[in-house]
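Notes continue from the previous slide.

Worked example: a multi-chain complex. Inputs as given:
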Amino acid sequence: MSEQDVEEQRAGAAVPIEPRVESAHPERGEVPDADGTAPPSSSSLEGDGEASLSQWQLIRRGFAQHKLALFSLNVLVVFYLVAIFAEFIAVAPSSQSRVDAAYMPPMAVGWSVSEGLHTSLRVQEIDPVTLRKQYLIDDERVLPLRLLPAVEPYKLMGLIPMRTRLIGVDRDAADVLGLAEEAGVVDAWYPLGSDRFGRCIFSRIVIGARVSLSIGLIGVACTFVIGMVVGGISGYVGGRTDTAIQRVIEIINALPQLPLWLALAAVFPPDWSSLTVYFAITVALSLLNWTGLARVVRGKILSLREEDYAVAARLLGASHGRVLFRHLIPGFISHILVALTLSIPMMILGETTLSFLGLGLRPPVVSWGVMLQDCLDVKAVRFYPWLLLPVVFIVVTVMSFNFVGDGMRDAADPYSSR
Amino acid sequence: MLDDLVAAGALPDVADRLPENPLVMRGVDGVGTYGGTWTRLTTSPTGVDLISNRMSYHAPLRWSPMGRPMVPHIAESFEASADQRVFTIRLRKGHRWSDGVPFTTDDIGYWWEYEIHDDAVHPSGPGAWMLNSGVEPRLEIVDEQTFQIIYDEPNALFPYKLASFGYLMFDSPRHYLQPFHPRVGDEAVIAETMEAYALPNPRSLYSFQKAVLNPEHPRLWPWIYRHFTSNPPSTTVRNPYYFAVDEAGQQLPYIDSIRFEQRRQELIPLEIANGKATMQGRYLQFADLTEYMSRRQSSGIDVKFWTSGNGSPWLILPNQNRRADDPADPSAKWKAEYLQDADFRRALSLAIDRDRIITSEYAGLVEPGQMSPGPGSPFRNEDAVKLFIDFRPDEAERLLDGLDFKRPRPGAMRVAPDGTPITFLLDFTNFSGRGPADFVIEDWAAIGVNVIAKERARSLFRIRLSSRTADMVAWTGEGDSFPLIEPRFYLPYGSQSYWAPGWGYWGLLGGMHGNSAADVGQAIEPPEDHPVREALRLYEQASRTGDFDGQAQLFREIQRIASENVFTINIAESPPQLVVTDANLRNVPENAVYAYIYTSPGNTGLETYFFDPATVSPDKAAASNALVDSLINPTLRPGGESLAAEASSFSVWPYLRLLVMLALSGGLLVLGLQKPFIGGRLLLMVPTLLVLSVLVFAIIQAPPGDYLQTRMMELEEQGSISAQEQVEELRETFHLDEPVWRQYFRWVGLTWFVTFEASDTGLLQGNLGRSMATSQPVNFVVGDRLMLTVLISVGTILFTWSLALPIGVYSAVKQYSVGDYVLTFVGFLGMCVPSFLFALVLMTLAGVSGLFSAEYAAQPFWDLAKVGDLLKHVWVPVLVLGVGGTASMIRVMRANLLDELRKPYVVTARAKGVRPTKLLIKYPVRLALNPFVSSIGGLFPQLVSGGAVVAMVLSLPTVGPLLLDALLLEDMYLAGSMLMVLSLLGIIGTLVSDLLLLWLDPRIRFEGGAR
C-alpha cells in the first residue's frame, strides 16, 4: 500500500480529519526536533523574510529541511543521470555474454601506486563433484583498469557515436600480460559479478534502469492526464457527474490490481515487439493507477472552488478555463506533484512483478524485473547471491520516491509547522 | 496396511487376490518391507496422469532397467509367429481388476470393438503403435485368457511397441465402462450421471469416466487412484489385487501410496534439493546438478546418474507443415515457405554456437551433434551426427541470402521479398523447459532471423501444432535409444512428428500405399520427390525384417536422411539423466536407461521399491486411514456423492444452505434499510460488480486464438464427421454462435431469471462457468482454494493490525525518538521490497512451502492436527503480505493519533491528573482507530492481489496460482472467473470494514456518514 492510499483514506474517511500537524509532542512542549532544527514558532510564519516568499520558495525551504527527503532526491537524480548515460557508465553491452565467466562474484576495484587502478585477476575452477563454478584470485597479478578506455564503438542513447566508456579494463596493459590467451583466466571486469550467461550484472542494472525508471515516469504522465481530467471534471462540475465519477473511482479501487494487470498482460499478442509491450504495460499500469490523483484533484478543486478569490473571479466573468487554470490549479499543483511522486513506486513495483512472472517485458529487453527472473533459480539465493542485486536498486528507488513524496507533502502542507 | 481390511472382511485373503501364476519380481536389494509414502512433484494438475503409464507399467511385455531384453509382464506368455505376422498373448488366469472382477480377454474385446473402433468415443482410431504401413491388424480372441493380434504383412517391430505402448489395451474394464458407453450404454444411467456431474453430452461423460482421476475406475496399476481431491496433492494407494509378488511370495508393491504434489517449475530444484521428493527424475535439469550434489548430506538424498535414453535434451523442430493461410498472421505465407526449405533449416543450424551453449548449460560435458541414438548404440550413424553442427554464421547468411530472405540494410533483421517483417515464434513447454533458447535466439538474431521464445501450456502447445499454426517448437528428443519404436523425429510418424505433423499423419496412415485412411483432413501429402518418402520406405523395410542387425542398418540410413535435411535442429547429446532419491529408498538401481519409450522409471520395477526399515519408522510411514478406507469406498468427484446418495435419503444440506443464505441476505437488507450508510455501500456493490463483470468479460473475449479457438481449429483440421460433431458440441457448450451480449448475459446468469433452468445459471447463481480446456465446471476446480484464500487474507489483516497498532501508538507517543525512526524505516523497507522476492528468500531460508505438510495436504477432512499443520505453514505468506501492509497502517495510526493528542481535551485531561496510559487508551487511541479501521477497506483488495502473486511463488493452494495457470493455458473462462472471485473478495473486504466502522463509530451509526 503506497502513501497516496493513506492520503486517500484520510481524505475519504468518514471522520473529518484535520490537516496533519506533526509538531513536537505536546507533553514535551517545544523542545528541539530530533534532527536539530529550531522549534517552529508561530511568529516565524509572519516574519519579514517569509512574508515575501512565493509559495514555491516556501515549499522549497520546507523540503530542504527534510533531510531524508533531500538525500533521497539526490539519490534519484543520480539514478536518473545514470539511466540517461547508461551505455557510457556500463562496463559492457548488456547482452554481451562470456560463458567461461558465468556466475562470477563481484570484483571490487582497487588502487595502488605500483599497479594503478586495478581489480583482482580471477581464474575459473570447476568443482569436479558438484560442477560448481568457482573463481580463484590470482595472488601475483592483477587486472589493470583505467578511466575512459577505448572500446568497440557504440551509440549513446542510440544517437551519439562513442568510442569510450567511463571505466573499464585497460586492454593495452592486459595484452602485455597476455591474459587473453591463458586458459581459465578471466580478463574481463565484473564490478557486481555476472549471471549464468556470464553477462555483467552491473552493466545490466545500469542499462535496465532506463526501462525500469522510465516506466514509472511515462506511466505517471498517463496517470497525470487521466487523473487531472477526470478529477478536474469531477470537482469543478460537481453534482451528479461528481457522484458518478466518485463511484467509478471506488469501483476501480476495489479491483485487485495485480491479477488484473496479469490478465491484461496475458492478452498481449506474443509477437508484439518489445517496445510495444513496454508501452502497453505502461498504459495498463496507469489505467488502474489514476484514481489516487483524481481524488486529490477533486478534493482540492472542491475546497478551492468556493474560496472567495475563485468566486470573485467567476463573478467578474472569467471563463471556466481561466478560473480553472489561472486560479484553481496553481493553488494545488504542489499536491498533485506529491500524489504523482507517490504513485511512481507502485508502477515500478508493478513492472517488476509482471516481468518477474514472465508476463511483462521479455528478454532481450533488460529491466530490473526481467533480471529478477533469474532469482527464481534456487541457486541464486544459495550460491550466487549477487544475482539478487537488482532488488537493492528497486528497494532504494522505491524508498527514495516514498521519502521524496513524504517530504514534499510535508513541505507543501501550509499548516505544517515543521 | 491391507491386513485390517482382510480381517474386517472387506477384502478377500491375499491368495484369492493374486492370479494363479503371479509375476515374481526381484529387486537389487532383495526382499523389502511394506509401508511408506512416495512423494512426487509435478508442475501442473495434469502431472498426476503419470500414474497411468510411467508410474504403473502395465503392458503385456516389459523392458528391463537397461532397455533390452523384454520380459513377459501382464502377459503370462507371448509368442510371435516365424513370419512376424501372428502375435499370441496369454493373460494370467485369476488376474483381477482392482475391484476384484476378473480381467479376461472379454475386456480386450470391449476395448477393440467399443473403444478404438467406435467413432463415438475414440474418433482417431487405433493408435499409431498398432499400425503397420497404415494397416490395422485383426484381433482374434482364442479363449478367456488367450488372444491374438494378426497382421497381413510382417510387423517385426510390433513386440517392441507392445512393450512400450501395450498398456493402452489394458485400461478398459467392460463391466465398469459399458453402462456409460454413448452407443450401447444404459441411457438412464448416462442421463443421470451427466446431470450429476454437469456434463454437456454423452461423449464428454464417457471421457470423464475414463479419466485418469476417476476414483471409481478399476485398474491394473500397482497404485490406483481412489481418493478424489479437487486440488493437488493427489494420492494413489496400492492396488490390493496387484498381480506381482516378491521372491518370498509377498504381494507387491511395498510402498503404500504415491502422492503427487504440485509446485511451480522453478521451485522444483529447490524442493528436490530439500529432500521433498522420494524419487524423481522428471523435471530435473542437468544444470541443477550443483545444487543436488552439495545437498546430499544435509537433505538425506542420493543422486544417481542414469543413462539418458533421449537423443537430445532440447531439440528444435521447425514446423514444415506450417499453415500458409493463417488469418491471424500476415507473414504466414512466407514462414511456411521458408520453413519447408532445407537450406533455411541448415542455415539456422549452422548459426548456432554449440560450444558456447554446452559450456554454459551442460558444464562442457557433452558432445555437440544432431539428433541421434547415443554413443555405442547399434542404431547410431556417426557421420550423420556431425552434419551441419559447425558454427559458421557466414555460411548461414549466404544460404539465407540465396533464399530471397534478405536484410533490407546491413544489420537489420531479414524480411520477405515483399518487405513483410517476419517474427518466428518458438513454442516450448515446461516439459523441455526454456533450455538454451536465449542463446539460440541470440545466435539467430546475429544472422538476421527474428525469433521469440514463448512458453505454452502443454495442451495449447499440442493444439497449436495440430492446427498447424506453430512456427517452431522445442521438445526433448525422446526415446531414441531404440529409435524404431517411435521414430517420430527422424521420419514423419504421426502427429507427434512435431516438425511435420501433417506428413506424419500421411505417413503413419499408409499414405504411400494410397491407403484411403490417409485421406483425412489433417494428413498432408509430401511432394513427389521429397526425401521423407525414402525414409518412410526404409522404415517399412525394417518392419519386414526379423533380424536386429538388419533393422539397425536400415535405421542408420534413415538417420542420414534426417540429418542431411535437418528435419530437426539439435544442440548437443543428452547429459546423464539425474535421478534424486531419498537416501533410505531401496531397490533403486544405480543405473538404468531413462526414456519415455521404456515408460521410465516404470522399467526399473517401482513395485519393489521400499523404505529401509532400519531408518524409517513404520509409524511415520503408515498410510492414513482415510486412504485405506478409500480402497473400499472411493472418495468421489464433486457431484458423485449426490449420485450415490440420491437413492438413499433426502438430504437436508442444500435447504439448510439456502436458509443460511436467505437469512444472511435478509439481515444485510434490513441493516441496509436501517442504516443509510450501509445501504449506500450495499447499493454501490451492484454497479461495482456490473462494471467489473463487463471488464472481465472483455478480457475473456479479447485474445485472438485462445484455447477454445485453437482447439476448434484443430478439430476442423481433422475433418472427420465426429470431429465436426465435437466442434458443434463446443459451439453449443460455449454458445459461440450467439452475439457477444447474449454470451455475457449467460455468463453472468441473467438468462436464468427468464428461464429458471439449471443450465442457464451463471455468476449470480454461483456458477462460475466452464473451463475451456476441460469442459468441467469451474466450481469443481476451485474447491477449498477460496476458503484458504480468505483465510490467508484475514490472517494477514489480523497480523497487520496486531503489529501496526502498538507500533503506531508507540511512534506517535514517542515521536521523533530513535525507536520511531527505526520502526518507520523498517516499515518502509517492508513496503518497498517486492513481496514475491521476500517470499522466495524466506522460503529458501526457512524451507517452508505450500500450506500443508505432505501428510496433511491429502487429508480431506479437517481436524486439530491439520489446523496445527496449517498454522506451521501459513506464517510465511502472512508474514510476507503483512510486512508490506504494516508500514502504511503504522503511518495511518501514527498520524491520526498525533492529531488526537494535540486536541485540547487531552491537555485538559492531563492537567486534571488522569494517568497518561489510561487517558491514551481510553480516548485518543479509540478515536484514532476510526481511520485505521476504514483503511482495511483499501487494504483488502491489495492483500488479495498481493496474495495472488505470493501464492504463485509459494505454490499455495489458493485462487492466485489457478489464475496464472489459466492465463498460461489461455483458458479464458477459468481465468475470468478467478478474476471475478478475487475482485469479489476485495469488495466484500471493503464492505466488512464498513460494517466494522459502523459498529465502532457512533457518528456514522447515527448520521449515516458523509461520504
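Summary box: Chain A touches chain B through 87 residues (CB under 8 Å). The first strand of chain A starts at residue 109 and ends at 112.
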